[in-house]
TrEMBL record:
GO MF term (any one): lipid binding
UniProt cross-references to InterPro entries, sorted A to Z: DegV, DegV_C, DegV_domain_contain
Keyword S-adenosyl-L-methionine: no
The entry's keywords: Lipid-binding
UniProt protein name: EDD domain protein, DegV family
Keyword DNA-binding: no
Organism, scientific name: [Clostridium] symbiosum ATCC 14940
Purpose: May bind long-chain fatty acids, such as palmitate, and may play a role in lipid transport or fatty acid metabolism.
Length: 293
């Protein structure tokens, strides 16, 4: 007699990890965890470019300072198309990660579209962060899924995990942050003659604020490392290096932070996405930390 047992089984949940390109997850990690990617847009007069697909951050830097493009979120239709793709591929659940709603409209777009998808159970996390400060939470969730953590448990844990992730940026200039309207709570520095450089981060509301103002790049690098080490504490951490046309500085910082965080695991070093380069300008160096991975 044919066994009919399988007919009454609840279909096994299949969870997709969805990120936006501002999360700065590398192609290698996207492939490793089979993540799905929504791209932000970089808009010049001649064309609307897809973030890191048909425009690179290097192109943005080369067109500075004469040309400063605009950026935009993935469109509702792009999110809908992604949802349709996920359903075709057999996914039943979605964990979506968006850069801070205080810096981008991507979170709201994801929520409005995915909430209408009756065939997908979805959770969208406002990471209240930027770059790999956001992306590392997706990597953490993907790893937990591989280890067998249920979807509902991740939905319960992720909002609290946000406070364990921090990214700190050393900024060579605030010009592009100001022109792009992303200045947030960062105090404007008038004293360029004094060579003051800011270190910024995202606060608990996901808005940029000034961590410190340092005179000169050498002291800035030292302070950046000190702030990262202070946030990391003494336990295990994941750390990452992000740069904006500052690869040499990133390589040097990698040596220093590896020594400073003996309990740390280096996840990635990369140049930030083109969409983020628009608002931060050249000379940026960032350190991302995730505590208790």
């Amino acid at each position: 007699m044919e066994n009919k047992m399988n007919d009454n089984r609840v279909p096994r949940e299949r969870v997709a990890i969805l990120i936006d390109s501002g999360c700065d997850v590398t192609e290698e990690l996207i492939r490793q965890y089979n993540m799905k990617l929504l791209r932000l847009h970089v808009i010049y007069p001649e064309k609307d470019y897809s973030d890191d697909l048909d425009i690179s951050p290097q192109t943005v830097y080369e067109r500075f300072p004469g040309e400063i493009p605009h950026t935009s979120t993935p469109s509702p239709q792009e999110v809908k198309d992604m949802a349709d793709e996920l359903k075709r591929e057999g996914y039943t659940h979605v964990l979506a990660f968006a850069i801070s709603s205080g810096l981008s409209g991507t979170y709201n777009t994801m929520c409005s579209v995915l909430n209408e998808e009756e065939e997908l159970t979805s959770f969208v996390l406002d990471t209240r962060n930027i770059s790999f400060g956001s992306g590392v939470l997706a990597v953490w969730a993907a790893q937990k899924l591989e280890e067998g953590m249920p979807y509902e448990e991740l939905v319960r844990l992720l909002p609290g995990k946000v406070q364990d992730s921090k990214i700190l940026y050393y900024m060579d200039t605030l010009t592009y942050l100001q022109k792009g309207g992303r200045i947030g709570l960062v105090t404007s520095i008038v004293g360029n003659i004094l060579n003051l450089k800011p270190i910024i981060s995202c606060n608990c509301e996901g808005v940029y604020y000034t961590v410190a103002k340092i005179r000169g790049s050498k002291q800035g690098m030292t302070k950046l490392l000190a702030e990262a080490k202070d946030f990391a504490g003494d336990g295990p951490v994941w750390f990452s290096l992000l740069n904006g046309n500052a690869a040499a500085a990133s390589n040097e910082m990698l040596k220093r932070i590896t020594e400073a965080l003996p309990e740390g695991k280096h996840l990635l070093s990369k140049q930030i996405a083109a969409s983020l380069a628009v608002h931060t300008g050249p000379g940026l160096l960032g350190i991302g930390i995730l505590k208790n991975p």
